[in-house]
Amino acid sequence: MIVLDTHIWVWWIHDDAQLTDKYRKIVRNYEDEGLGVSVFSCWEAAKLVELKRLILHCPIHEWLDTALHYPGVQLLDLTPKIVIESTQLPGKFHRDPADQIIVATARVHDSPLLTADEKILKYSHVKLLK
């Protein structure tokens, strides 16, 4: 399984041009193994809609229902272990709580993370797919 950062998941669902062919191929290659989506990514998508930074063609609850049923998607719960890990990430990591939770989720599941976030890409304490 791989873990998808929120923007990768949204771009994949929307077939957005921001999702490069390389990343699109990675997502497709992992559909059978599993595409982990943190429940916190659901919160983040809903928050982006609330702030009008993400415009959807349907209400957020319908979008989430559809997006969580895409091939290979596995909803990853926010567990106490992930919560604790997010507050104890080794090295220096930025203060965005959503990124902390998503990185901690990948670390706890011992799964690579697929992201285009430059801050996360520079963080050496998480497995990344590039």
Structure in words:
By secondary structure, the protein is an alpha/beta fold. It has a single domain (2-129), classed as 5'-nuclease (Rossmann fold), CATH 3.40.50. The chain has 7 helices and 5 strands, in the order βααβααβααβαβ. The chain has helices spanning 6-14, 21-30, 39-50, 60-67, 80-87, 97-108, 118-121, and strands at 2-4, 35-38, 73-76, 113-114, 128-129. It has a 5-stranded parallel beta sheet. Helix 5 (80-87) crosses helix 6 (97-108). The chain is globular and about 40 Å long. It starts with a strand and ends with a strand.
Secondary structure topology:
Blueprint (H helix, E strand, L loop, with lengths): L1 E3 L1 H9 L6 H10 L4 E4 H12 L9 H8 L5 E4 L3 H8 L9 H12 L4 E2 L3 H4 L6 E2 L1
Parallel strand pairs: 1-2, 1-4, 2-3, 4-5
Summarize the structure.
The chain is an alpha/beta fold and 130 residues long. The chain has seven helices and five strands; from the N terminus they run E-H-H-E-H-H-E-H-H-E-H-E. Helix 7 links the parallel strand 4 (113-114) and strand 5 (128-129).
